[in-house]
Design goal:
The complex is a heterodimer of chains A (209) and B (41). Chain A is built from eight helices and no strands. Chain A has 209 residues and is mainly alpha-helical. Chain A has one domain (51-205). In chain A, α2 packs antiparallel against α3 (53-70) and α6 packs antiparallel against α7 (172-189). Chain B has 41 residues and is mainly alpha-helical. The longest helix of chain B has 20 residues, at 2-21. The chains are: A mainly alpha (209), B mainly alpha (41). At the A-B interface, α1, α2, α3 and α4 of A face α1 of B.
Chain lengths: 209, 41
């Protein structure tokens, strides 16, 4: 898939007489756009089919936004990431949607509280978790990413708390709150060494096409 | 027309690349090698 994006960038660069660096930037931007669109479209179709579109959308956006500042474990290939993302977003959305129960709101609220405390601790210890393809060593960048990570987590925690408080209005709010908590749980797991090993195991089982 | 479309795609792709350059990773879990001109280590 990355080859197709690269060929498209080369074609654009050749027609518009761009240099190699400019073509690289276009290929990088196109990879991001294609990756986001493909995950979003496939997850949306699965979400509409299982009636979990909102939960899928929440997880897709919130994990994506949190990862922008925290970093985390990465797949080795574009296709690996695509399959992995679609599979786990759909599973997490199904769990959020169908585990939601108005009798268990207190239990889920406590569970979410524990997740956020753990996430803040791991963020304090590890963020930013960079990758070989994008190493981060500049102190100002590290400081900015850490600050953004904490702000994002606090914002997510407040949103989750509000959704739990108003869950008596609509039971769906519990599944939205669970979606946020599960997003944070998943992304925090991806910051740990076990998460990194988990991704590597998935990569071993996948082929790029 | 084709050239205009290509120019539009290149502008959008460049804008997107610049936007994601300031973050720790691209989006979800695949990070291609970042172009030299976008690097801010």
């Amino acid at each position: 898939m990355e080859e197709i994006v690269r060929n498209l960038a080369n074609k654009i660069g050749l027609n518009l007489s761009y240099d190699k660096e400019k073509i690289d930037v276009i290929a990088y931007g196109l990879t991001a756009i294609v990756q986001m669109l493909m995950i979003f479209l496939i997850v949306s179709v699965i979400g509409i089919f299982f009636n979990t579109w909102f939960e899928s959308f929440i997880i897709f956006i919130l994990v994506g936004l949190l990862r922008k500042s925290t970093g985390g474990a990465h797949n080795a290939t574009f296709m690996g990431c695509l399959i992995y993302s679609i599979f786990f977003i759909s599973i997490m959305a199904l769990l959020s949607r169908y585990l939601a129960n108005d009798c268990l709101v207190i239990f889920y609220a406590v569970f979410s509280g524990i997740i956020f405390v753990w996430a803040l601790y791991i963020t304090y210890k590890k963020v930013p978790v960079d990758s070989p393809n994008k190493p981060i060593s500049k102190k100002t960048t590290i400081k900015r990413l850490r600050r953004n990570s904490f702000l994002t987590l606090v914002l997510y925690a407040i949103s989750t708390a509000i959704l739990f408080v108003f869950s008596d209005i609509n039971i769906r709010y519990v599944s939205f709150a669970l979606s946020i908590s599960i997003s944070v749980l998943w992304q925090t797991f991806m910051l740990t060494d076990i998460g990194d090993r988990f991704i590597k195991i998935i990569d071993c089982k996948m082929v790029d096409f | 027309m084709k050239m205009k479309l290509m120019a539009a795609i290149s502008v959008i792709a460049t804008l997107f690349a610049t936007l994601v350059a300031s973050s720790a990773c691209l989006w979800w879990c695949y990070q291609p090698k970042e172009p030299q001109s976008l690097q801010d280590r």
